[in-house]
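Worked example 4.2. Below are the chains of a multi-component assembly; read each line carefully before continuing.
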Amino acid sequence: MRACCWQGVEKVQVDRVPDPEIINPRDALVRITSTAICGSDLHLYGGKVPTMKRGDILGHEFMGVVEEVGKGVRNLRKGDRIAVPFDIACGNCYYCQNDLWSLCDNSNPNAAALEELNGFSSSGLFGYSHLYGGYAGGQAEYVRVPFADVGGLKIESGIEDEKVLFLTDIFPTGYQAAEQCGIRRGDVVAVWGAGPVGQFAVASAFMLGASRVLCIDRFDYRLAKARDLWGAEILNYERDTDDIVETLKQMTGGRGPDHVIDAVGMEAHGTGFYDEYERGKQFAKIQTDRAAVLRQAIQACGKGGTVSLPGVYTGFIDKFPMGQAFAKGLTFKMGQTNTHKYMRPLLEKIERGEIDPSRIISHVVKLDDAPRMYEVFQEKRDDCLKVVLKP
Amino acid sequence: MTMVRMADGAAALDEDAATWGEAGRRARRARSHADPQKEHGRHGATAHESRGEGRNVNAVERALSLAAGAWLASMALKRKDWSALALGVAGGALLERGVSGHCPVYGALGVTTARDERPTRLHGAAATVDAKKAQRIERAMTIHGRGADELYLFWRRLENLPRIFQHLESVTEHDARRSRWVAKAPAGRTVEWEAEIVNEVPGEVIAWKSLPGSQVPNAGSVNFRELPAGRGVEIRVVLEYEPPAGKLGVAVARLFGEEPAIQVREDLRRYKALVEAGELPVSEIPGQGERARVAEFNAQVSRGDTGADLGGFQERAPGEAHEPTHVPTPADAERGINTSEPATWEART
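Applying the procedure described above to all two chains together yields the following C-alpha cells:
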C-alpha cells in the first residue's frame, strides 16, 4: 500500500510499504477513505517529538471502511463505515472506565519508555512516535486499528466524510478545551490560535454558552475564518496591539477573559525580543517548549478563571508565572483529548445540523500530495487551514 | 544463632505483609501454619544458645576479652609466684572467650549479647536469603475490574506463574505447599530450586521461600488488597534472591537488558494488560524482528494455541483471548526507540 512516511526533520514522503494485518483479537483492518494532516503532525514534521524513526507512517485523523476484524470484535463487521479516535484505549482499565481514555493503562506497547520520561505512561497514539507506542498512522491506504471495538464509531447515516472526519481529533479537542473551562452563560472566553483546534474551541465555547469569544492569532486569513464561521472577535497580535494582556483586559471591562484557551502549544510564536529569547532557549535546549502563549494566557486570564490547554506540551518551560496564577485563583486543565467521550454526542450535533465541521477545510488533495501539503501547512501558505487527504 | 538471619529474611517478607495493613495483621494471625522453624527463629535465642554451645558474646566484648586476656597472660608470664597461675587461668579463659565468642558463664545464665549480629553467610535448614547478597525487587500495581479473591486464586495456583513471569520456565506443584521452580538464566541455561509456601491467606497474601540446596536462594510474597469504592485491587510483589554471580552478575545482566527488576516490572505490566484488556498491546514497528514476531504470533493465533484464560478471567470473549509467547520486552522497546538506524523495512517505491 501507499503511506505517508516520516523520513527526517521536515521530510516526509509517500512510500510503498507492506499492507497492515490483524495482529490482536480486538483489531480491525480499515481501508481509509479520508484522512487529514493535524497541527500536531507539524510537531513531528519539525522534529520536535523524540523517538520518531525513519519510515514511520504518519497520521492520526482518519476514517474508512472495515475490511476485516479480529475474533474479539463483535460490534463491527466488514463493510462498516467508521471514524477512529486518535488515541488508542482498551476500554477496561480504570481510566477508560472513567472517561479518561487518553490516559489508558494498557494500549501503549512502549509504556516503559514513556513512564521513564513522564513518570507514568499514557495511551498509545496512532502515528505519533515510538514513545506513544510506535503504531502506524492513518495517512495511508489501510491501517490496523487496535481495540477497534471500543474506538471505532460507526457512521450509519450517509453523511459525507468531510463532515465527520474531524470527530477523530480536532473537533473533540476543541470541544474538550471549552468544556473543561466550565463555561457559564455570559462568560467571555479568549482563544489563542485560530488554527483547526482553535476554530473548534471558538465554536464549542459558543455552544457551551459563552457570550463573547476573543480569538488571537497573527494570520488574518485564519482570524477571518474564526470571525466569519463562528462569530469570534479577532485580534492580530502582530498588528493590533503592543500589549496583548492589557488589550484583553480593556476589551473585557477590566475583568480579563473569564477563561483562556491555549490552542497553540509548545511551538508558540511571539513578537520582538521576547520571541527571539524563547527561540534561543529552545534551540539551546534550555527549555524544550516555547511558552509565549501559555504565559500570556495566564497573565490575561481573569480572576477565578480557567486556563485550558489543548495545545501540546512535551517537556519543560521556565519563567512560569506561578505567583500570578496563584494570586488569581486560576484552575489549570490540560492533556490529550479523551476523544472517545465526545465522538458520539458530537456526531449527533453534526447529524442534527448544529455544526458543520467541514467548513474549516481549505484543501482536499490526493494522499500522494501529502509531502507538498505538509510544507504548505507548516509555512501557512495558500491560506492553508486544514488539509484532507484522499488515498 | 545460625537461624537468626533466616528468620530475618523470611520475617522481612512478613513485615511487608504487616505494613500492608489489615491483610498483614490477618496474615500474622494466620501464620500458625507457617514454618515452625521460622517461628522459633523469630524469638532470637536458639536451641544452641540455651544449651550454652553457640556464640553468645558480641564483637565488642570479644575484642575487650582478647585484649584483657592478652594483658593478663603477659602479666602471668612475668610473675614467678603462685599468682601467675591464677592470672594465667583467667587470661586464658578471656582469650578463649574472645576467640570463640562463647562465654560459659553467659551460657549457664542463658544470656547472650550476640543476638543482633548478622553472620555473613547463612547455614542450616532454615536459611533462605543472605541479606548481604540479596537483591530485593518490589513492585506494586493496581488492577481494575476484578476481585481480590479471583486474582488470588490465579496466583495461588503457582503453575500459572510462568504465564506472568517470562523468565520462569515452569513451576511444578508437588503438593499444597511444596513446588519445583525452573527459571531461565543467561546464556540459555536454567536454574532450579524447590520452594515451599510459608504463608497464605486466601484473597490476601501468598509467601514462599526456596528450600536449602537452591541454586538461587530466594523468597517472595504477593499481597492483594481490595480497594474501596470499586477502585480495583492493589497487588504488591516482593522478591528477594541471591544473584548467582553476586552484584557483578546483576550489573552484567543489566547490560544485556535482563535485570530482574525490569523484567518483573514489565512482566507485571503485561499481566495487567492481559487481565484488564484481554490482550497485549503490540505495534507494527517496521523492522524485521518485529515482523517475524508478528508472524509468529499470528501463526499461534491461527492454531488457536494460546489458552490464555488467566484462570477463567476472560469474561469478554471466553476462549478467544490470546497470549503471545513473545511480545515486546523492554529490550525490544529500547531497540524500537533511541536508535537512529534507518528502518529495515525498506520503502518499495
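Take a moment to check your reading of the output against the notes. The domain at 171-334 of chain A is CATH 3.40.50.720 (Rossmann fold). Chain A touches chain B through 47 residues (CB under 8 Å).
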